[in-house]
Amino acid sequence: MSVQEQVLEEVSQQSKETKSNEIVLYNDEVNSFDHVIDCLIATCGHEPLQAEQCSLIVHYNGKCTVKTGELKDLKMQCTKLLEAGLSAEII
């Protein structure tokens, strides 16, 4: 096996090991922009501009990935979003 093949195999293996999940936030007709923005800042650690942009994407596209990472790290954040009345899931 050549060095290049070994490197490609290692990168492929690392990619499989670090597969990340996503919290997807869905649009609803209940929550205000301000509430969604505040929740994203408090729960996901977004900067205000990032939270505002995500809320607009959710509004116009129906959904938006608001956080990526390992499942164990996302479970609590998704639960907090749900407890705040938002529609979200981990995929």
Notes on the protein architecture:
The protein is built from 4 helices and 3 strands. The longest helix has 15 residues, at about 5-15. With about 90 residues, the chain is α+β, with helices and mostly antiparallel strands. Strands 2-1-3 form a 3-stranded antiparallel beta sheet. Helix 2 (about 35-45) packs across helix 3. The protein has a single domain, classed as 2-Layer Sandwich (Ribosomal Protein L30, Chain: A), CATH 3.30.1390.
Task: Using the CA coordinates, give the radius of gyration.
Answer: 17 Å
How many domains make up the coordinates?
1
Beta strands, count: 3
> What is the mean pLDDT?
90
Give the biggest sheet.
3 strands, antiparallel
Summarize the amount of helix as a percent range: 55-70%
The CATH superfamily label reads: Ribosomal protein L7/L12, C-terminal domain/Adaptor protein ClpS
Number of DSSP helical runs: 4
Here the CATH topology equals Ribosomal Protein L30, Chain: A
CATH top level is Alpha Beta
| Poorly predicted regions | none
Q: Per CATH, which architecture?
A: 2-Layer Sandwich
- Straight-line distance between termini: 36 Å
Computed structural class = alpha+beta
* Strand order across the largest sheet: 2-1-3
DSSP strand (E) fraction?
Answer: 15-25%
String of helices and strands: HEHHEHE
| Overall geometry | elongated
